[in-house]
């Protein structure tokens, strides 16, 4: 009897076997998860970081015992009365430089005014040390940096005291500008330096598909870092951190206006090398006037120069470096702008403006020198900010002389001539119509090099202070008429400098859109200078603010020779030169053969590619 399977309306027969479907689903899911895992491991360098964690957990970091003088170890450790003549170099002994505390005008001691011969001796020793250091492992390099870091975090007040005595800044400013920045750079370089300098594999392309291609980052040799006077500790160690990680020797040239502290800081760096079994000559400091700087810039032993300072001196450094075609990075003047749009709450922005204008008495590469305020909040901004500036306490940052208690917001300026420059710029602005709300002169109640915290409003492009670097405690306020974004952008870019910029607005996307049109090397939205605490970012500017970058992956790799390498993937497949284009060339077949090669690899038309294949067969 025949049996017929019946179904009722609406019913459907289930598949007889679902195993193949489940298998495909399972395979697809597992493959996707494996691929995602591989991508995450690569993105976050999980294996690399696991190796670092093991290294950190199993390695003992040496403790440094650095001797200190009374002037270095005590707030009141300097004896002697203020001097009236702060001359750097005396006629009776030009082999020494005199060092002074800019807040008290007390004499601190002498450093060498090094000659060309002394500089060459330092470079010779650094070259010997670098030939050994270049062969160290990244773990060995990290250990030296971790040794320095350990000392820094356990001697914060000592380093801040010495920096304050040298540069006149309050200890809080020293923590922010000398310690935090340094510690973050060491942390970043220790974590990512090896990863950034690993071999960087590149695509070889279809014609060279049988090749492996990569870039190796090889130590350059001797890096010379010529530093300014505004942050003596950070400026002295900044390029040592990245230079050592890249396998180089680093010779620093400190400013003649901030040389006293270099002895203490140098003892830290060199002892960190010695306790870990390395040559202390790997890191050295040059002190002196122009002769020592010229000797560094013109020496054939120097492999790269990093200069931070004024634009006029930067030009001279570049001219000297051209003698040996020594590559260089120039981080020059800044005229950083802070834009405050009409949609912000003024009270929320004031703390950033105050910090940007008055930290370290305005002596910052990325100090805010132009505050562009939209018209709707212009009057309210001045109403709120002027009383705060008037309330700033100024004086000696250390309780070291007379009745000073060190409880100050604003310290002194470092270079005597800079007070005159600031005074001239303020007077020019007032003469041309700017309003002086407070300050505007050297503080008559203090003996040191103090310029009163100053607020100028109604500043226009016709005034010198709009275009020239102030590098002093002056807030320069510019009105943006009609809350016009286009006018704001025009005024921002109407400047010869282009280092950093910031913009405050209620809408981050609007701030980013406007800020991207600023001709500056750096931009922060709704913050000030936070980019420098993100040491994975490069630092540098455009126009008269210089060129090249330090910090970040770009800055670290810039301290290396970028060597391009090509090697066969296998010894079974090697490049050969066809006989028709081997010398002497087959004139009749050589050109059509090479033309066919071009058609095959680079003509986007498929017919032309096929013709190229036939051409290679025909003429090859």
Descriptive account of the structure:
- The chain is of the alpha/beta class and 620 residues long.
- The protein folds into three domains: 95-332 and 556-563, Aldehyde Dehydrogenase, Chain A, domain 1 (3-Layer(aba) Sandwich); 336-397 and 409-533, 3-Layer(aba) Sandwich (Aldehyde Dehydrogenase, Chain A, domain 2); 576-619, no CATH class.
- The chain has 20 helices and 20 strands.
- It has helices at 19-43, 46-58, 70-73, 116-133, 138-154, 156-167, 171-196, 232-245, 262-275, 290-298, 311-321, 346-358, 375-390, 416-431, 464-467, 485-493, 508-515, 552-557, 587-602, 606-619; strands spanning 96-100, 107-112, 200-202, 211-219, 222-226, 249-253, 283-286, 304-308, 328-331, 336-340, 368-374, 435-438, 454-457, 474-480, 497-498, 501-504, 524-525, 542-543, 546-547, 560-568.
- The strands form five sheets. A seven-stranded mixed sheet has the order 12-13-14-11-10-16-17, sandwiched between helices. It has a six-stranded mixed sheet with strand order 7-6-5-8-9-19, sandwiched between helices. It has a three-stranded antiparallel sheet with strand order 3-4-20, with no helix packed on it.
- Strand 16, helix 17 and strand 17 form a beta-alpha-beta unit.
- The model is unreliable at 1-15 (pLDDT under 50).
Offer a quick outline of the entry.
By secondary structure, this protein is an alpha/beta fold.
How far apart the termini lie comes to 76 Å
Quaternary status = single chain
Can you summarize the main beta sheet?
7 strands, mixed
Principal-axis shape equals globular
CATH topology of the largest domain: Aldehyde Dehydrogenase, Chain A, domain 1
Give the total of beta strands: 20
Q: Uncertain runs with pLDDT below 50, 5 residues or more?
A: 1-15
Q: Total helix count?
A: 20
| Integer count of domains | 3
CATH class of the largest domain: Alpha Beta
- Give me the CATH superfamily of the largest domain: Aldehyde Dehydrogenase, Chain A, domain 1
Radius of gyration: 31 Å
Class from helix and strand fractions? alpha/beta
Helix amount: 40-55%
Strand ordering within the main sheet: 12-13-14-11-10-16-17
Percent in strands: 15-25%
Q: What is the CATH architecture annotation of the largest domain?
A: 3-Layer(aba) Sandwich
- Please state the average pLDDT score: 93
